[in-house]
Amino acid sequence: MSQPIVLLENITKQYKQLHALDCIDLSLNSGEVLGLFGHNGAGKTTMMKLILGVISATSGNLSVFGVNPTDRQAWHSRRQIGYLPENVSFYDQLTGLEVLTYFARLKSVPKAQVHALLEQVGLMHAVHRQVKTYSKGMRQRLGLAQAFLGEPKLLLLDEPTVGLDPIATQEFYASVDNLKNSGASVILCSHVLPGVEQHIDRALILSKGKSIATGSLNELRQQAQLPVVIKAHGLNGALAKNQALSGFMVKANQLHIPEDMKLATIRELLRYDALSDLQVEAANLEQIYQHFLNTPNPKSEVNS
Amino acid sequence: MNPVLAVALKEFQDGLRNRWLVSITCIFALLSLGLSYYGTVASGHIGPPSLSSTIASLSSLSVFIIPLIALLLCYDSFVGEQESGTLLLLMTYPISHFQLLFGKFLGQGCIITLATTLGFGSAAVMLSVTSNIVGVMPSFGLFILTSTLLGLCFISLAYLISLLVNEKSKAAGVSLILWLFFVIIFDLVLLGVLVGGDEILTQHGLVQMMMFNPADLFRLVNLSSLSTSDVNGVLAVAINSSYSTSTLLVAMVAWVISPLLLALVIFRKKTL
Questions:
Q1: Which chain A residue has its CA at the smallest distance from B18's CA?
Q2: Is residue A54 less than 8 Å (CB to CB) from chain B?
Q3: Which of A83, A86, A108, A184 could form a disulfide with A158 if both were Cys (CB 3.0 to 4.6 A apart)?
Q4: Both A246 and A157 in a single domain?
């Protein structure tokens, strides 16, 4: 087993009175995409800053590419890290090309890549315009191009899809998938939950600096024990008469079934000839997220 | 490319794009050309401009303008980038605090240097072509050198302010207070002490006090090289017992380097 790219052990970060992060454990292997979720002020940005080595942890062990990111040796690995901050507005007076060239020089990235990246994020038509004329989405694209500079092995993206139109969002996820396939690890933090789920391997949900849930989407679904929603159309009240199913009925044609009874229920439903349509929806990321944030913190109760 | 050079180049580019370089150069050129033409009128007689009166009036005007321009150019260098989020981003790049600070200083210092050289240089060229005064170039050379040092000194002070505060508006306010202090208040206090408390300050003590103000150093260097008849005020007293020009220049260089070093220490400790 190769060494994890990012390893956090018992990390705590304290700002005077505020516990920004509390006993966080995390390991991220190469080629893995982690989704970082949480309410505003949950500590997502703090965690990214810690991994980037901009701030140092109050206690705990932290290593990125095998070294502590605040150490001097970590300096060289910075070239392999791409970061997109949450709210970044680039130098308004310079053109898009000049901004990206500047960052490329700082990262010692060849100039050819600057053009390729601008092409990739769809800014070719605006490279010679000053950044102050850019729209929010265009600035975000420029920020992404900046994060992708130098084919990073670790990408930290804070709210990457804010301000992007649906097509640009798709293209963005496609580039994330590409980077992932080439072995890069990605930490992605987003409020726009729909659309993220196909692209992340694991999720970490933070609340008030504590990790309240972690695992793959399937694991989280099981932990949350959220029901599968099945909508059966055309049965005209036959469901209510079925004793095995009526207990799970929410509406006339809607059932909330535990995950492990899904197949049995579907078989049962298929026996009705009148069935005209069947919709099966597993709990999505948004529901899982809401479930974990709304239920009182189960982990801390276990601990105390 | 070396990160220091990359930062310097970008800052210089920014200065060109903001039209800072063009406007500062124009201000300096207008000022010096105007003063060398009409400087004699101001002192009440009409005639060919005298070199010492030109330099004297130029330096008493520049001492107000150059610090103000340098502070305006640089007060938001760090706090501005902090507010827009690029400072955080830059610190995740393979660039050290020193490289970023020094790169910025190099880029913005080049703008000030180029502006003083071109702006004041134009007057020097004009004077040496149109009149037959001897020694234009050495006098103006010293003037341009000290103007540059004065500008660089206030750039480092502006960085210090920019790193100490966390809001752009605060940085602007503090810069203005600093400017008032060094350019006006400091001299007023010195004058008050000279007039009010007798024998508190000796002539030598006065000059030593002036070492604590880069603006006064600038005046001292320039005026001490002139004939004293064109100089009045506190400086007339000070000049007679002045240190050598090279000592004063070294003091000015110290005024450039020490705020910069202090800024670096603060930058390293700053939490983003």
A1: A93
A2: yes
A3: A86
A4: no
